[in-house]
Protein: EFMT2 methyltransferase
Organism: Tachuris rubrigastra
Amino acid sequence: FFFFLFPPYSSWDAAYERELQTFEDIGDAGEIWFGEESMARIIRWLEKHRVPLDSSVLDIGTGNGVLLVELAKSGYVNLTGIDYSPSAIQLSEKIREKEGMSNIKLKVEDFLAPSAELSGFDICIDKGTFDAVSLNPDDAAGKRQQYVRSLGRVLKPQGFFLITSCNWTKEELLNEFREGFEILEELPTPKFCFGGRTGNSVTALVFQRK
C-alpha cells in the first residue's frame, strides 16, 4: 500500500503560514491534496446521487478551501470549512475573496473538540485530515476514536461522509468507522503497479451515519 509523506495533525499551522505568505506574494493557492481529480471525484458523486444544492456541507480540515470553491462553482450554496490552523483559514478567506465566493463560511475549529454550533450537517468531507490525525505522535489511537465521536456529533443521522485517505486501506477504514457508520460505496481511484502487484494510491469511501 502506498504512503504519502504526510505531516502530523499538530504541525500544519507552520505549513499554512508558508502557503499564506506565498499566496500574498504571488497569488498561488498552494497544494491541492490528492490533486484536482480527488475534488472532481467528490463532486461527481454528489451530482450522480442528486444531492440537493442547498444541502449543508462541512469540509473537515479545509486547508486552502479550494474544494469549497469548486463546490460553490458547481452550485452548492450551504458550505462550511473548518481548520484548526488560523493560517489555513486566513488563506482560505483570501482565496474565497479572490474567487468572489462570499457565501462560503469559514471557521477556526479543532474537529477533535468541535464547538456546540458545529452540528446538523448533511454531508461531511475529509481529504487527508483523518490521515493527519492518525499520525499524531501523542495518542494517535485515542485521537482517531475522538475523530469518529466528533463525526457522529456533527453529521445528521442518515448523512453522508466522504473520505479520501492515502494511509488507510478500505478494510482498515471500515474498521475505524464501524461504530455508527455503514459503507455505501467505494469510489474509483488511480491504480499503480509495483513488483507485479496492483494497488490503489488512495482510498475513497462513502459512509452513511446510522
The chain is about 40% helix and 25% strand. Strands lie at 56-60, 78-83, 105-108, 121-127, 155-165, 181-187, 191-194, 197-200, 203-209. Residues 65 and 143 are 23 Å apart (CA to CA).
